[in-house]
Amino acid sequence: MPSDIHSVSLLPDFANVNNSLELSVYSDSLRCLWDNTIRTDILGHIRSVQTTMGAYERPPSGLDLMAWGAGLSDYEAINNQDISVNLDVINIGSVAINDATFGWSVNGQLQSTSVSHTFTPPLETYQQGNIPIGSFHADGDSSNMNVVVWVETINTIADSVKWNDTISTSAKLIPLVEFANPLVKDTISSLSFNVYATIVEKTGAPVSPPEIYIHTTIGECLDLRDTVPMTKEDGKWVANIPEQYFNSKVVYELHVSDNIIMLF
Fold first, then answer.
1. Does residue 1 surpass a pLDDT of 60?
2. Other residues' Cβ atoms within 10 Å of the Cβ of residue 55
3. Which of 63, 136, 259, 263 is least surrounded by CB atoms within 10 angstroms?
4. pLDDT of the residue at 185
């Protein structure tokens, strides 16, 4: 019988073929990605990200620390912002875990040395823990920062269960300031106009109303420079540019600063 790419063909070994579909032997061939709306099996046992097909999750066995989820302090960052990384883990083995080490990378670049963590008290079967991994500097050269964290050792023994020891997440780089719609550009018929901008406020530093810098020229006959204060309306900063001269060219720019970065 033909099958699709998600099908698995094997002869299962049931614990009691007359009473249940629970297996006595669990094969790696039965692993699949979980449905995150179904967090437990029929017995209430926690399902892992790489779960077991069927009603029953593989029972705990040996040393097995699963990387459950990676978290970031911010998923939308501005250039030069520090982002902290943490890891959720769960013991799906049968042995209590006293300590573990972890490695991590950002956009493929290995970060520092292994991160050591001691569980106090020890992490028992099906117990979860959260581990601070470290922090990294958002780099303006990358619009997306992919973070990968993995388990290296468990109870000083090299991790041998590789299918559930790695997890990833990502953050997106966003501009500190950005002109917003309706944008004013090209040739317009009005002598006065409004300029709108959105400014990211992430650090909690006091927000000082910014100013728009305008430079008005008409060929070599006119060269004027001025500043226009901005006010905040409905989440956007607005500058009311006063009436300009006919046939003039107006260039406007916005300088903003934060205690993380300054843009020019």
1. no
2. 11
3. 259
4. 85
Distance CA 23, CA 21 (A): 6
The set of residues, in sequence order, having a beta carbon less than 8 Å from that of 182 and lying 6+ positions away, is 196
Question: What integer is the mean pLDDT of 152-176?
Answer: 92
C-alpha 158/C-alpha 101 separation (Å) is: 9
250 in Cβ contact with 244 (< 8 Å): yes
Which tokens go with 26?
Answer: 């669990």
Per the DSSP assignment, residues forming a β-bridge with 85 are 72, 134
Higher pLDDT, 13 or 194: 194
Spatial contact of 114 and 105, defined as CB atoms under 8 Å apart? no
Residue 172, pLDDT above cutoff 50:
yes
Q: What's residue 61's pLDDT?
A: 84
Q: What is the chain's mean pLDDT, rounded? A: 85
Q: In what order do the strands lie in the sheet with 236-241?
A: 177-180, 193-199, 236-241, 222-233, 211-218, 249-254
Q: What is the pLDDT of residue 261?
A: 45
Residues 118-132 have pLDDT tens digits of 999 999 998 999 999
From residue 59, alpha-carbon distances to 24, 38, 94, 126, 131 in Å are 10, 17, 8, 10, 25
Residue 195: predicted pLDDT: 94
d(CA 33, CA 18): 28
The pair phi, psi for residue 51, each rounded to 5°, is -100, 180
124-142 exposure pattern, b = at least 16 Cβ within 10 A, e = fewer: ebeeebebebbebebeeee
Angle of CA points 23, 27, 29, to nearest 5°:
125
Residue 72 has a CB neighbour count (10 Å cut-off) of 18
The single-letter code of the amino acid at 38 is: I
